[in-house]
Amino acid sequence: MESLRNWVKQAEIDGGQRPGTSTDEAKRIAELEREVRELRRANEILKAASTFSRENSTPDRPDERLHRRSPRPVRPTGRPIWSAAPSARRRRTGSGALT
User: Fold this and answer.
1) 89/63 Cα distance (integer angstroms)
2) CB 24 within 8 A of CB 32
């Protein structure tokens, strides 16, 4: 008997004879709540991915930054923090020739 009363009550609400949330409005509210849950979950995933990416790409020292084309850290001037061994470097002599 109670289910019949509830059905009549909902029919009156849907017909505009009684105040309350209509069936269509309740469906729409449920859809929106589901969408909000999905968007919040997606935001949490994106935040976690952003944090993970930032932790793995940020240099340890603040005076270093990574050049986009080079895996080696560079100074703010653009010069590398470290370079090849001295024997691998080419030096200019006083006459300007490379040795």
Assistant:
1) 25
2) no
| pLDDT tens column, 86-95 | 555 555 555 5
Q: Which amino acid is at 74?
A: V
Q: pTM higher than 0.90, yes or no?
A: no
Q: Tell me which amino acid residue 96 is.
A: G
Structure tokens at 69: 């084309």
Q: What residues have CB less than 8 Å from 80, skipping those under 6 apart?
A: 70, 72, 73, 74
For residue 1, the model assigns a pLDDT of: 82
Q: Where does residue 90 rank: exposed (0-12), middle (13-18), buried (19+ CB within 10 A)? A: exposed
Bridge partners of 74, per DSSP, are 65, 80
pLDDT in tens, 19-43: 999 999 999 999 999 999 999 999 9
Report the C-alpha gap between 28 and 36 in whole angstroms: 12
